[in-house]
Amino acid sequence: MLFYTVSSKEPLTFITRLKIALGSAKGLMYLHNEADPPIFHRDVKASNILLDSKLSAKVADFGLSRLAPVPDMEGIVPGHVSTVVKGTPGYLDPEYFLTHKLTDKSDVYSLGVVFLELLTGMHPISHGKNIVREVNLSYQAGVIFSIIDERMGSYPSEHVEKFLTLALKCCNDEPDNRPKMAEVVRELENIWNVMPESDTRRGESVTSVSDSSKAMSTPSSSSAAIRTSFVSGDVSGSDLVSGVIPSIKPR
């Protein structure tokens, strides 16, 4: 889904892939920083990033999402939510898998894997190989362009390298070494803003979170319901309702 246009089998260009990445990051930044209460998605993956007819990315399927921690009696906000590990193999934050501690950085890791998919065309796990490990090996060997998706066509190598470096930062084993989602958005915007205007004009809309206000009320049907009710959203304030998350409004 993330490699071809909606209307044809034309491979996506670099600028379109960058647009998808930025829209996805903005949607998650809204959930982490702007929604009230904030939430952790917990199942960020390529199939949960929907594209509309303009190839604008929408983060969807909140069936596994969890509310972010609330302040304790002393006003201190815990840094994580302790929970049974849920998610999709290949996208799971290894620290969350080991400790059962879910944080905003868990979503950052998963989104980093999506970024690597966009850049390489590889699956997260394939024939026993893990995309994060394979890209890291190529990066350390100084041959990163050998793993870039050939279907992307010509691309600005400097900007691709910056994007890939950011993706690997998101996939760092240590959560403290990963950027916050707002930092991810800022870095992607920096890359976007130095692209030729003729390229960026083809992808002006880069937001959002899917509008899931018509979602069903049971966890088992939340994924299908969100997909059915998917419409163009806005990071400044769609209502988000699923089987486990109450109404979320902008703070």
UniProtKB/TrEMBL annotation:
Molecular-function GO terms, alphabetical: ATP binding; protein serine/threonine kinase activity
Protein's membrane topology: Single-pass membrane protein
Keyword Protein biosynthesis: no
Name used for this protein in its record: non-specific serine/threonine protein kinase
PROSITE patterns linked: PROTEIN_KINASE_DOM, PROTEIN_KINASE_ST
Entry keyword annotation includes Membrane: yes
All copies of domain Protein kinase, residue ranges: 1-193
The organism's taxonomic lineage, starting at the top: Eukaryota, Viridiplantae, Streptophyta, Embryophyta, Tracheophyta
EC numbers on record: 2.7.11.1
Native species: Pisum sativum
GO cellular component: membrane
Transmembrane spans: none
InterPro entries: Kinase-like_dom_sf, Prot_kinase_dom, Ser/Thr_kinase_AS
Sequence ranges of Low complexity compositional bias: 210-225
Region of interest (Disordered), residue spans: 197-225
Keywords tagged on the record: ATP-binding, Glycoprotein, Kinase, Leucine-rich repeat, Membrane, Nucleotide-binding, Repeat, Serine/threonine-protein kinase, Signal, Transferase, Transmembrane, Transmembrane helix
Compartments where found: Membrane
